[in-house]
Design goal:
This protein is α+β, with helices and mostly antiparallel strands and 388 residues long. The chain has helices at residues 8-14, 21-28, 67-80, 116-124, 129-140, 143-157, 179-192, 218-221, 261-278, 372-386; strands spanning 39-44, 50-54, 88-90, 113-115, 204-207, 210-213, 225-233, 237-246, 249-258, 279-285, 290-297, 303-308, 312-317, 325-329, 334-335, 343-351, 354-363.
């Protein structure tokens, strides 16, 4: 690792300078995939950077991709304790599937109960409209009231081109989302749903003697794929949100508006392979790596040890990974008192003179302020040093 202590002139060149993945791609001359669909997005999970996109912000019918928000709300309530896995949920006549082949169902009999965890699997794996509506009624009293919760959560996540009207994704006026927003939601599910995220990788679920397979075809063909959700209506076309984790890198793909189940699977696979083929995650410094010892004024100790406060990980094109250097920005000295974990400076990853990522440099221990007489003497010493 190349480490430099920089003065203010160099700091001005790199601090506060960010670089988007579009700039990285442009400098590396990476051509985005061309696909026969309405919209797509490829997102890096760790950074949230968009590696490729087409009509990313266009509001579109999301079909059953809607159910990712329904399941996310359930997962968050399970995690907080507001819902219990064995809590019983009524399948009302309003929520019940009448055996129609026009929608996907979990097939819970009308006026019977199923547990929350079974309902969650029915939503994620079987894409059950009945389970989605029943859970909406259980949580909010009605599906329309639950849609309010969905929109509140979407707003919190920054889903700017999304408006939910129902919990299922069945065609409804004003019910829409964008490929970017659905990638944001997928990232939140992976990050915040804990052990419940593993349900998205389950390949089948049996309830009431009926076994149904997960419609995400990538689960059967790619062991690195562990989610998330399919969707289809005539208006939306065939859609798929998928995530793949390979080594130190996880990507999220969103494909909307393809012509067939095969097309959505093929395009998702192509997009993920394109991302892993062109980009990589480079760790330049692990969290807690020793950086330097820094002189301390007016403290009970003469110096403090500094270390990185987080992993310095960089998402970059594979053609540029060997160009990354690191630059350290720390002062020449620091005054006590100092608290353990206090940020003293930053370590930056730099390509071609521009900072593309940074992590804080922190103190590894406390340094208390010295006594009055000691501080007075150090003031004299410091004054004398400044004369020369």
């Amino acid at each position: 690792m190349t480490v430099k202590r920089v003065k203010q002139q160099l700091v001005q060149l790199v601090i506060g300078v960010s670089i988007s993945m579009s700039a990285v791609m442009a400098s590396a001359a990476i051509q985005q995939p061309e696909m026969d669909n309405t919209a797509y997005v490829l997102m890096d999970y760790n950074t949230g950077e968009i590696l490729a996109q087409k009509n990313a912000n266009q509001p579109l019918p999301p079909a059953s991709l809607t159910k990712m928000m329904t399941s996310y709300i359930i997962e968050q309530r399970l995690s907080s304790g507001d819902l219990k896995e064995d809590e019983q949920v009524l399948m009302s006549e309003n929520a019940w599937c009448h055996g129609s082949s026009s929608q996907s169902c979990m097939y819970v009999p009308v006026n019977t109960n199923a547990s929350v965890i079974d309902m969650l699997r029915g939503i994620i794996i079987q894409s059950g409209n009945d389970a989605s509506i029943a859970m909406a009624e259980h949580i909010a009293g009605s599906e329309s009231s639950f849609a309010i919760l969905m929109n509140e959560q979407a707003q919190k996540l920054g889903m700017e081109n999304t408006h939910f009207v129902n919990s299922t994704g069945m065609p409804d006026e004003g019910h829409e989302s964008s490929a970017l927003d659905l990638a944001i939601l997928a990232r939140a599910i992976i990050k915040n749903s804990g052990d419940y995220y593993s349900i998205y990788a389950e390949k089948e679920f049996t309830y009431n003697g009926i076994t149904q397979g997960n419609r995400n075809a990538l689960l059967a063909t790619d062991s690195t794929v562990d989610g998330l959700k399919t969707g289809h209506t005539n208006a939306a076309g065939y859609c798929l949100v998928a995530s793949s984790n390979r080594e130190d890198m996880r990507l999220i793909s969103v494909i909307m508006g393809t012509e067939s189940q095969q097309a959505r699977a093929d395009q998702s696979r192509e997009l993920l392979n394109w991302g892993f083929g062109h980009f990589t995650t480079v760790t330049k410094a692990p969290s807690g790596q020793f950086v330097s010892k820094l002189p301390v004024w007016f403290g009970e100790a003469d110096e403090v040890e500094l270390a990185t406060g987080d992993n310095l990980q960089i998402l970059t094109s594979k053609t540029q990974k060997n160009k990354i250097t690191t630059v350290i920005d720390i002062p020449d000295s620091i005054e006590a008192p100092i608290k353990k974990g206090q940020q003293i400076g930053k370590m930056m990853a730099v390509i071609d003179g521009k900072a593309i990522a940074s992590v804080p440099i922190v103190a590894t221990n406390n340094v208390e302020q010295s006594g009055f007489m000691s501080r007075m003497w150090q003031h004299v010493v410091r004054w004398a040093q400044n004369l020369f």
